[in-house]
């Protein structure tokens, strides 16, 4: 079963049901490692690079909420990520909002877009769902290309990082890192909480057998839309945070290639695993960093990884590790 | 009043014709997608890349082997079609038992590889491919509008190819096998027909259609690695609008949406890039299965 359907997150078996924040013991251990990495790494590695990883990790986790737990493959998540970035950048630069409010604005626009696109896309499922989200995201791309506030090909540049709550200036990378880390951890735990709530159980029921969930009295469309909106909101937050980190919002983040990239990250890490998207984001961002000098070959390598993952490595890194250790991560 | 109307027509006609030419490409591409999807249940994301390959192969045949347009129009689809069949045998065939979404992910990866390779080899600026001079005979010269013969040819060639494909599927024996295998593959296989080989041939044929469109497009657009990606997302929207149930449906939808796009460029240019997506939204709200879809 786990081999034929695309989503691999299985329901918890009885003896796995466990304590801390709903994590199983293996997951609690993995979360401890993740937390330690987030806390220690900025003392050794370049904070901007780490912040980029955290932003994409949150983006990939948000994407995974849909594919891993509701079984819907969105090929248009760049729309939320990119628009979140634009709105945060605009709010911080033109409206002069403080960073936390600017990021919040990015989340709000992700939410609104999620309602719009999700409302259309949940009318179909499977391959059609992917094509509809892709087409809708392309429409958002054309909007960003033409709308005056996005700056067209130039994007929004020199976005000020501002001061957190108007008090703590975030100009230093090291200071900003902790804000990004908190945003990421909050998003990560929120997704974990959603998945393990009664709402999340229904989501998984929809994935496993939608007609049956309907017959039990659940309005499955409402659940799908809700999951889509949550995913879009968190993607908007991730995009907004990234725009603040780099001080720029451009068409790259709203282009369809970005939608493909987040699919790749999640696939590499492991679809439907809790930690897979984080690992996948770290792998892909690191790879892009080191291969940047090879120009167009990066695209080829990404394509090869895609093909290799689909043909031979469908569980992803974390999925394979979990399979080896016989635990779910 | 009448003068005014004529002036309007003068302004509008080229855009509408351009729309029809785009529609010709939408029709060919969505036809190929529909055939592949019908038989293999795979959405071929690499369709745009294979379209681009057709254009590049035509350019290579001319530049490296001196084979002119007409030769390329036959050879390029064959070569790219054979490439497609090799891809189907070695990769796509392994995924039939899995969720259909894996086919989409695999072909997306393939599209990235193909585009990246061509970008490395030829740069992203684009190569010129001159239309053969004999199309001068097709030039249409109205008082208010000059229409290059090559564009007329593109519309004719595309319509003819779509019609031919339809005839093959609806009226020949192999077409009957194909339709039967689309409905009930196990039963057809039980009658002794080699269904896996039919799947390979079907994918090859769909890819060849994309490459044929690519050769047609080479003299109009500059031959560049991104030419397919720009088209394919619009074609996906076209496919959602038409629904993939019928061959004729995808052809008609393709031409119609090209025309609508052209007319939008006259009436409200800002919306021309998005009008197809707006129509997609309207169709999804009223007929979720698509105009010609079956559930």
UniProtKB/TrEMBL annotation, chain A:
The record, for Pfam families, names: BPD_transp_2 (PF02653)
Q: Does the keyword Transmembrane apply?
A: yes
Keywords in alphabetical order: Cell membrane, Membrane, Transmembrane, Transmembrane helix
Superkingdom of this protein's organism: Bacteria
Locations listed in the record: Cell membrane
Q: How does it sit in the membrane?
A: Multi-pass membrane protein
Parts of the chain that traverse the membrane: 28-46, 53-81, 101-120, 127-149, 175-195, 225-250, 262-287, 294-313
Task: Fetch the PANTHER family from UniProt.
Answer: ABC TRANSPORTER ATP-BINDING PROTEIN, HIGH-AFFINITY BRANCHED-CHAIN AMINO ACID TRANSPORT SYSTEM PERMEASE
What is this protein called in UniProt? Branched-chain amino acid ABC transporter permease
